């Protein structure tokens, strides 16, 4: 491909990135530092089975008389070096993986060169470009991919490579559209899968070795005889993928290839199966991939697991330790191809802001300590692709800081004050996370220890009544002020001071298709909702818990002053009385009684 001046600039930027990626900034923590106790002491990381060849890593970009710039991370770079140079990564979600007729069919704008420049400027070194081929592919016997669509995918890939990105492409939603029928449609699925990868491999075989292929996204199977058969089918797909790509020649002979676990899950049996596959393939240029959306209960806000507490943190730690032991400890690098919180798919407010920030701070640290490359899942809900800015800058600040260092947090980011009556001192627990407390600030001014606050040896921070009375202002319910806890490094922790009264829920009538409770939130925020029948048994979906799933069964709307109970909730509620308890972040609870008869619903407080 003819290179433009912009292309050369992008290649140079990529080379600079590679040089800096192998030497962390001064003061940054590295994977060579102290390891968590949960990781077995295994000494130095085992090397990959063999280094990637110099030929495989040499740039294919410097042809047609253009300036030749090396794509390597070193003359004897291993696949582990390459994976490390891909950290951190970002997903171009809900775009080329859309299942409609065009990449805009799921609401995102068309990708442009300038947009990719914007993403590159955020500090990402790799980009995963999920691609769904189904809507652009003909039938048997050849399953021909629309050349115009292949051209478009190649165009976006080339823009990303020109920007200096490492790039990953895959077979994405095809996994549940047709690949999943393999147990009952084996030969037809295998033929289509083979034809698809044959065409992709041929089109991209001469691209830069900074392009990687991922065999299939979140592999899954329907109608199987069980997990054993599903693991065998995935192993077959991965073997076919490996053979097709390697036999296609060009850069594909040694191109890094990414292989997933079943469901991209982290259960021991799934990890062991993929580890055995990789060992059997005996290829030094393979990378394992899993996805991680945190502990499920916390990630979707169900069963009352509203906080990223010690239990949730341990669950995440255990997941990551299993992946580390299965692969990294054996010299196989790992890319966490997607990470985030599952609740984000419905609403980024499903998990409370402070708890969300604590999760991402710890996840980034824990992944870095285990040598994983991480790729943030973003389907447009994080980086605004029209305004080219982060929708939640505080969230991205926490994510990006975690790439190199830890940040201090606290037991909460919320301090509730009574909107009327006496204000007393309030305490919370600081979590320095290896940093040290430096100062407490209000509007950039340091507050006075001993007068405005006290700090105990156990990291208990107590805000004085005098300070809180000043911050409460006119006592009107709602946000009143902010304090900032500054630590010795990382992102400062913001405390939001809120005037609050017990929320008031009013009588309502409606149907199972549309039921809204008029609510005066009075400065408070809804954490979760319990639902029980009159006899005390659990009501509604997922009846194993009384605490229902946020934004699936209930949803607060602070601007409209309502709490909606969804059709999904009522679909699994029996006629009669249902007692609801709404739990708010201040600690207040409000009871509400529903009466359901067919599709008619009424409700009252108490």
TrEMBL record:
Record domain Glycoside hydrolase family: where: 103-382
SUPFAM superfamilies: (Trans)glycosidases (SSF51445), E set domains (SSF81296)
Signal peptide: 1-25
Keyword annotations: Carbohydrate metabolism, Cellulose degradation, Glycosidase, Hydrolase, Polysaccharide degradation, Signal
The keyword Hydrolase is assigned to this record: yes
PANTHER family membership: ENDOGLUCANASE, PUTATIVE (AFU_ORTHOLOGUE AFUA_5G01830)-RELATED (PTHR31297:SF41), GLUCAN ENDO-1,6-BETA-GLUCOSIDASE B (PTHR31297)
Family of the protein in this entry: Belongs to the glycosyl hydrolase 5 (cellulase A) family.
Protein name: Endoglucanase
Organism in which the protein naturally occurs: Promicromonospora soli
